Amino acid sequence: MSKRKIYFASDIHLGLPSFEEGREREALFVQWLNDIKDDAKEIYLVGDIFDFWYEYKRVIPKGFTRFLGKIAEITDAGIPVHFFTGNHDVWMFGYFEKELGVTIHKEPITKNFNGKNFFIGHGDGLGNGDYSYKFLKSIFTNRVLQWLFSRLHPNFALWLGNRWSVSSRNSKDVTYQFKGDDELITKFARETLKTENYDFFVFGHWHAATIHNLNPSSNLVMLGDWIENNTFACWDGENMTLERFNPSSNPDLIARI
């Protein structure tokens, strides 16, 4: 089978809200990975794959064994897997690269697939505005504060991190409605297009599954999530599709460009 498809998914939030429900979501996502691996040329996991993740030098969070094993199987088969840090799993310090063969991206990247230009990133903190969040992110990514956090015992630190993550999620509406042209990320994409040409901007973070037209030749692809939507995007070399994974049948098509 020709491996020509590029797959994108984000915001799985493994571990949320409990061990039991997190395990169900993990099993579903692993099934999707298993289904796509035979025709995948590359796989892009575009942030917030975990609801909370923090790596110590010699300790990683407990759990997620089936997901980690499936990723190792995929990279061992020669399929590149790209992992973007999101606002919930920003604290990655080498484990995925060394143990799983995954490429980590801490900033957005640009790629060209079959003559089409892609701008890919988790999406948080881009463009103007949302300065309170940007300040919070600067704290999370501060090396001195990360070093101080690592001095805490893992049992306490990971408990604290998970409590923060769950409380942060509970304070928000996960059924977020994308606001189209009024979104900061849409304004960022349009501003970027003034100086650079991209056929597709691919982002996670907003938990809204949609393809939003920016101009006749450029589209904003919002990947949705796996808390409620179970959505992903696929570039087959000619068309971009946004689909909902259905474990008992073919995926449900949401949009095609």
Oligomeric state of shown chains: single chain
Quickly give the CATH architecture.
4-Layer Sandwich
Give the percentage of residues in beta strands. 15-25%
Derived structural class: alpha/beta
Mean pLDDT: 87
CATH superfamily: Metallo-dependent phosphatases
CATH topology: Purple Acid Phosphatase, chain A, domain 2
The CATH C-level class name = Alpha Beta
End-to-end separation in angstroms reads 24 Å
Number of helices: 7
Helix content: 25-40%
Strands in their spatial order, largest beta sheet: 4-3-2-1-10-11-12
What's the shape? Answer: globular
Report the count of strand segments.
Answer: 12
Low-confidence stretches: none
Task: Set down the secondary structure blueprint.
Layout: E1 5-9, H1 19-36, E2 40-45, H2 65-76, E3 81-84, H3 95-100, E4 103-105, E5 109-113, E6 116-121, H4 131-140, H5 143-150, H6 154-170, H7 184-192, E7 200-203, E8 209-215, E9 218-223, E10 231-235, E11 240-244, E12 252-256
Parallel strand pairs: 1-2, 2-3, 3-4, 6-7, 7-9
Antiparallel strand pairs: 1-10, 5-6, 8-9, 10-11, 11-12
